[in-house]
């Protein structure tokens, strides 16, 4: 029997068509990403990010606004990218804020310990 590649033609063509259609399929709208970004901003605000990480929370808010605008304009890929950036910036603001609060509390506790040590050394009650 003469081997031929003709019998591979139709399955190969079908595979190419399936792959082409799959690559053209768009992802679902980034509503989950937008929601997560909004929650991240709210969480950072709740951690006093405006006081302790003002630049980072401002960047997160701006990215979130741009993501919402992109979504409204139908630019879903841009909206997804900006929402993810907003989440990352808000998470950074949250962490920086929590760190600043923890550092302030640590400094306060150290000052209290120092005061107690001075009292004990000086015999002051």
TrEMBL record:
It holds the Pfam family DUF4398. InterPro entries: DUF4398. Keywords: Signal. Residues 32-108 form the DUF4398 domain. It comes from the Bacteria. The keyword Signal applies. Residues 1-25 form the signal peptide. This is DUF4398 domain-containing protein.
